[in-house]
Structure formats: C-alpha cells, structure tokens
Amino acid sequence: MNRALGAGHWALGFVAAAFVLAQPPLGAAGHTVTFRSASGATVTGLMIDARERPAPAVVLVPMLGRPKDDWQAVAQRLADVNISALAIDLPSTTVPEDPGALLGWHEGIGAAVGYLGGRPADVRPGAIGVAGVSLGANLTLVAAAPDPRIRSIALVSPSLDYRGVRIEALLPQYGDRPALLMASVHDPYAARSVRGLAQDASGAREVRWSSIPAHGSVLLSRDADLARALVEWFQRTLAVN
Q1: Is residue 13 predicted with pLDDT exceeding 50?
Q2: Domain 3-20+29-237 in CATH: superfamily?
C-alpha cells in the first residue's frame, strides 16, 4: 500500500466513528447559504455569524465522506469569540473516478472565501482564515497557497499526498502567512506529514500534537484542548479584538 492510499484508508476508517462526534453546544445556530465555484458548481455551506460585525471569518472544510455539520461545534466556538464561521460541504462523499478531479475540489474553498469577501458589512477585510481536516486539510493548502485573501490556515491530520492531492511543495508558495499543523502522534502518516511540512520555517508555523488515537474531525471532537487551540489560533492570527 502506498502512502497516498494508506492515508485515504486511515481517514475512511474513522468514518464510522465520526457518527459519535460531540453534539454542538446548546444555542448553536446557523443558516444555510449557497454560492457558485469557479466551475459553476453549487457549494452549500452552514454560516454562523459573529455577534459584532464586521468580524473575522473562517471557512471550515470537512474530511472525505463527512458533511459540513461535523464542524458545527467548532463553528459555534468561533462565533462565541466573535469570529464568523462558514462550514462547507465537499462536492461528493466519495472519491471521483477521474483522479484529477479530486484536486479541483479546492475551488469550493475559493468560492467560500469570495462569498465572505463579498460581505464587507459582515466580514472584516483581510481577516479570512481556513481550517481543514484530512482531505479537507490538503484542499485548504491547495486553495490558500496562491490566494492572498486567505490570511491564516489550520491543517488537521494532513497528508503529504492524499490520492494525488500533493501538498509538500505548497508551503513555500503560501509564504510567511501563519499556518497551524495538527495531528495525533498515533496517526502515523499524518504525523509524518506534519513533521515534513513543519520543516518549512519561512513563516509563522505552529505544531500541535495530540496523544489521542484519532484522525480529522474525530480527533477534534475527542481532544478538547486541540479544538480550543484551533479557535485560539484564529483569534491570534486574525487579530480578534
């Protein structure tokens, strides 16, 4: 089994466990929004607005096979510290037959950033971040590397190569913008990937490890400290007052 397939199998192995994600806190709210990607595809998102606006905003990208709702608890925590959150669905719950099509899924992230940027009364200009888990982490870096509108990212359980979505050469292109890298020490390929990405010291890089054996959104649901660190990361790097 090559590394790319190994990473995908690891992620899919946690799909069943993802059904027991922690429920969002009481009072969690949001509304559904839709917009178009560059290719014309419809992107569906769950928007939870900060109380005081304009505010920073973060796009939240799920893992393969899981919906945007996996992010609801984190989205509410972001809103609680006055950061708007937009959790989006991936184009499909399964890997496309065309190997090159998976890479194109990053277009949805760019569309989400454009949607937020088109709301200057609600979203503070120059204060948009993106967080992704597993495949969503890889797509996050693919979208963020050439896009200066994205000021800060968080990658949870990334893979250097997720079924052809390769990211090992993208951090230099991302430049000196802040990047948070997270993984479980018991998730071998994600841990190796984080170590490899962390070798790029050209910008503000922070690494956070978990001792809980889980992957992607399951890791965030089981490790409260890691979820808290992700929220605090965007508080710092998006300059929340």
Answers
A1: no
A2: Alpha/Beta hydrolase fold, catalytic domain (3.40.50.1820)
